[in-house]
Design brief:
- This protein is an all-beta fold.
- The protein has one domain: Methylamine Dehydrogenase, Chain H (7 Propeller).
- A hairpin with a 4-residue loop joins strand 18 and strand 19.
- The longest helix has 7 residues.
- The protein is globular.
Length: 325
């Protein structure tokens, strides 16, 4: 399947190019247009969203041009955050509780909020190395991880006041750690996983201090990962590929997804999971049993999904959030 233009622009990592950041390369943050505050726009709800999560009962989504969207009515209506200090493409978001959250994106940006996403402050940026961040995960207000291009792994134990780079070991058969790391997710037992390229999954059982590479048997990129409520691990990526593990990642089994489109995001729901992706891909079910695909008739590219407090699913797309389903 040919990758869509939006997918190449959003994730960049397929070709390891970062053209969207070229104008900022070598510039101080205060000199780059990307580091001006996000524009307040009546059309913000039509922006492409790449990451979404829950902050208590609130849904928070992040995407292009530094747009952050908030919903307090289970996704029926969204409004733009009042202050975001950057205009870079934001790719991932995580909340430790209802008020304390972090978002990551291009130019190595890490943003922090203490008011549930209403306002954000810049904690980190790096325009000199051209390594976008793709995912962030906090287990509490102090301890967090962020991952991105070329095995970039950052960790903090002070709520993001300081971030340090963690040097990963080389993957099996390689001389250096250079895999792109796409999605952080945690299992119920506290183990942390990273879905990565070339079918690799990384696992840490000591809160990110050390990592082990796990082979799924797949050779393509894995964009998404989630742990079902029963502890089953699920990763997904190119061409509708889905793999699951019931033994903490020691062994993996391919799960028929019913779609040949890239699966971009997964979310745990009662009894299993839901996933969305390119060309309107939508799957639901249990990876321990079976998945059912129900693509959108309009083939609109879906980029993220969140479970609302009322149990409905909120899909996000290249054109913003969609009506709850």
């Amino acid at each position: 399947m040919q990758e869509r233009n939006w997918l190449r622009a959003a994730l960049v990592s397929l070709t390891a190019t970062v053209g969207l950041m070229a104008a900022a390369h070598g510039a101080r943050p205060d000199e780059s247009p990307q580091f001006l505050p996000a524009v307040q726009s009546a059309a913000a709800a039509q922006a492409m969203m790449l990451g979404a999560t829950r902050a208590g009962d609130r849904i928070v989504a992040v995407g292009e041009h530094g747009v952050v969207l908030l919903s307090d009515d289970s996704g029926r209506h969204f409004r733009q955050a009042t202050r975001v200090p950057v205009r870079v493409l934001l790719t991932g978001v995580s909340f430790a509780d209802a008020r304390h959250g972090w978002a990551v994106g291009h130019a190595g940006v890490i943003l922090h909020t203490e008011d549930g996403g209403e306002t954000w402050a810049l904690q980190r940026s790096d325009t000199g190395t051209d390594q976008p961040l793709f995912s962030v995960l906090f287990r509490d207000r102090d301890h967090g991880l962020a991952v991105g291009l070329w095995s970039l792994l950052l960790e903090t134990d002070d709520g993001g006041k300081s971030w340090r780079q963690h040097d990963l070991p080389a993957p099996p058969g390689s001389t250096k750690a250079d895999r792109n790391l796409f999605r952080l997710f945690a299992a119920p037992d506290g183990a942390v996983f990273i879905a990565a390229e070339q079918g690799l999954v990384l696992r840490s059982t000591d809160h990110g201090k050390s990592w082990r590479y796990l082979q799924t048997g797949y050779k393509g990129s894995l964009w998404a990962g989630v742990a079902q409520q029963d502890g089953t691990l699920v990763v997904a990526g190119m061409r509708g590929t889905v793999y699951s593990s019931r033994d903490g990642g020691e062994s993996w089994h391919q799960v028929p997804s019913g779609t040949h489109s890239a699966v971009m995001d997964l979310v745990a729901v009662p009894g299993g999971l839901a996933g969305v992706g390119a060309e309107g891909a939508s799957v639901r079910g249990s990876a321990a049993a079976s998945l059912v695909a129900a693509p959108r008739p309009d083939r609109l590219d879906l980029t993220a999904v969140a479970a609302a407090p009322d149990g409905k699913l909120i899909d996000f797309s290249s054109r913003g959030p969609l009506a709850p389903r």
